Structure formats: C-alpha cells, structure tokens
Amino acid sequence: GAVVSQHPSWVICKSGTSVKIECRSLDFQATTMFWYRQFPKQSLMLMATSNEGSKATYEQGVEKDKFLINHASLTLSTLTVTSAHPEDSSFYICSAQSSSGSRNTGELFFGEGSRLTVL
Amino acid sequence: GENVEQHPSTLSVQEGDSAVIKCTYSDSASNYFPWYKQELGKRPQLIIDIRSNVGEKKDQRIAVTLNKTAKHFSLHITETQPEDSAVYFCAASINTGFQKLVFGTGTRLLVSP
Predict the structure, then answer these.
(1) Cβ contacts of A1 on chain B, cutoff 8 Å
(2) A58 and chain B: CB distance < 8 Å anywhere?
(3) I need a labelling partner for B48 at 20 to 30 A (CA). Which of A49, A84, A106, B91 fits?
(4) Cα–Cα dist B97/A55, whole Å
(5) Phi, psi for residue A78 in degrees, rounded to 5
C-alpha cells in the first residue's frame, strides 16, 4: 500500500512547550489529510481535516488555537500542539487519501503515529 | 453527524474458532465501511472494506457483511489464529470527495492457542 510517514514517532516534552508533528505522504499526493487522537485503550477520534492550501476544518470540541494544522504542500501536513499540558498526552495519528493516479482508490493510509508525553 | 457503535468490546476465542464483531451506524448516507486491525502502539491496518452497493465481501478467512436497511455491518473471522489477536475497529464514512471516517469504539480480540 501507499506510504504515509509521521515524525517524530515519540516525543517527551515539558508542560508549556509546543510540539510539532509531521505527516508526509511519500509516494502519492494528498489533497486531504486527517489528524486523529487516540487515548489509551480508546478509539481514534478525528480532530481535524487538513486541506492543502486552505484552513483546516476542526471537529467540535477541538481547540483550533491549541492544535495548529498547516498543510502547505500536497505531501506534508503538520500538527503543532501549542502550550502542551499533561492532558494532551496521547497517540496522534495522521491519515491521507490519495488524490491522483493509481492510488486514488478511496482508501485511507495511516501514518505510524506519534506518541506525545507531556511532563 | 455519524455515530458508530461497536460490540463486543472484548472477545476471547480459542484458536480455530470463528469471531464476529458487529457495528451499527446512524447516518443512512454513509457508503463506505472499512475495518482496521491495530496492534499495540502501531498504526491501524486496513483488513477489509465494503461499499454500500454490495452486501458481502470475502477475503480468505475474513468476511464483511452489510445490511443497509438495518444500518449494521459485521466482521467475520474464521479459523482464528493467535496472530489475529489485536484491537479491531469498524468505521463508516460518507464519500464527499474524501473519506471522513468515524470509528467505532473497538473490539479487543484475544485468540488463545
């Protein structure tokens, strides 16, 4: 399947700092990417839809000023957790859908996930 | 918006038995229903999916059935093996040019040798 790469795979930071997570589609273009958050033993909750060249669409209850999303190119979306606090500790996963060519099957491809621990 | 419920939350079976996981969805406009397998700390992996124009799809030991009238779909795993142990998530989405998935709550499947 297509490859979506996330970086970093894990990060530990102090409370109050900001953390940036990158999501890249390595072998296809992705007009739209999605950011999910998964707490331990829970489901994946959609945080926002990232659209290349425009503002992200946030789900209800997700603070857009706290979770900054930038989708500057067809292969890269970033999620920045600003002023992180311990309750933001979670597994953040991105996904992307191919927007062109043979990869355009409608299937979503997930990144490896980024585990954030805020001390 | 879409709401997806999944049952059971945990499922323990003996190796070789069958396992069935069921999901219901609320939005009749949903037309794409994938199933994902997630191992601890790993990304979800698509194992099978079904679109609303078919009622059943099978891939070796895995099958999915869809009842659009009742708005429910099920995952069937036959001849289970210990390596099938994982958390399984169903999802539903409406394809409006991109797949905005809503996930079920997950089922932890444990296959004992």
Answers:
(1) 46
(2) no
(3) A49
(4) 17
(5) -125, 145
